[in-house]
Amino acid sequence: MKSTAQFNLTHEWWKVFRKESNDLTDSLLKEEVLPKKDLAELEDMVFEVISKICSKRTLKYGFRVWVDNEQKNIHFIRKRIFNNLPENDTNVESWADRILPNKKFCFVINHANKFSDSLTQKMSLIMEPLVSQIGIPMDGMHIGIFIGNYGFTPFGIHQDPMGAYFFNFHLGPGEKVMYNWNEDEYAKLKGTHNNINVQPLLSESKEFNLNSGSIYFMPWDKFHVAKTDDFSISLSVWFDNHTTKYVSENLFFKLFDKLEKGKESIPELVKYDSYKEKFHLIENYLSLDSLDKPLRHYFLESYNNQMLLLLSNCGWSANTTTLEEEINYNILNTDMVLKNSVQLVEPFKIYTVLDNKLLKVFARGHMLTFPYEKVLLKTIDELNTGKIFKTNCLNQNEEEGETIATILSNLYNCRAIKLLGRN
């Protein structure tokens, strides 16, 4: 994957972008940023996402469909979308024309990065100079995709969740017009959420015309709607900078999953004179009696783990599928990594935490655990330099070589390192 120099989205470019957007508090449009070559490459990656979603037949990561402004149910999606895999089509537009001829349609995909590692890498390289300046949200980031010729956004004028703001990379080829209203101004217009009566309010909006190659930023507090009359594709990088309540709830549910160890059952009914005696049912289910430290310790541990998972994945909250999931890669068979030199996948980093005699390794949004050995830390430190790691010398010390090969195979499985060819 090439560096972001090809996009001119350097550290300095993002500093100027921040200044012109009043440090990411005002909407901003920058035109002709992405060159044609990279627009075509990104469209191919979107095509890969569509193909994966259709082959997996899943709505799990926010795939939604509107046709002629009507949201379609799972039965329609299975019959018209999933049953028409984009196998012989040349691009997204030709596939859409084939399955929905002469229709106005809108496809929305959340967490597109789950389905394409090449897209995740590409967008990570684009965003890394900005992320290195401002950091990542506690709830992470995700890549959304809008595809279609749907006219106005089918769910109308709306405001995004508090703290969630996005960068829209418009691939085209059709134009997209974004209309913005400040929160107070929209309230004076007596505008409502998900307002589909758009036309009367347009004269009071601020208009942004997105053409192929444009980058558009919008903070969370703007009411907005888009208009896309001709077929176009937009990629959006969302900073899910949600409220502390939202973040805390997410962390709590992750901790709950960890504590949940008992056998699920239907609890006994309670009466006033016996309800206190029944708490043991909850205590046993959550294994609370086995906790040897205050609950705050486990909550803090859950927080630290979650932040390192995000940081190891450049902020993306959904990690790409592993090679084991996608191609049945056998982690235990280390021959492949031993026959090749390897290198860290840019711009990702691997993080480690020593927990008693276990080494927790955070890589591409996955947490791996190994019995602690100094050679593991040494190997990860060397990989994090970005230099080529040669594996042909690992056989000199059989036991140490096996330890290194094991962690390399695991890192390759979760796409943290890449194979460069034979040593």
UniProtKB/TrEMBL annotation:
Residues 89-256 form the JmjC domain. Gene3D superfamilies: Cupin (2.60.120.650). This is JmjC domain-containing protein. It comes from Maribacter flavus.
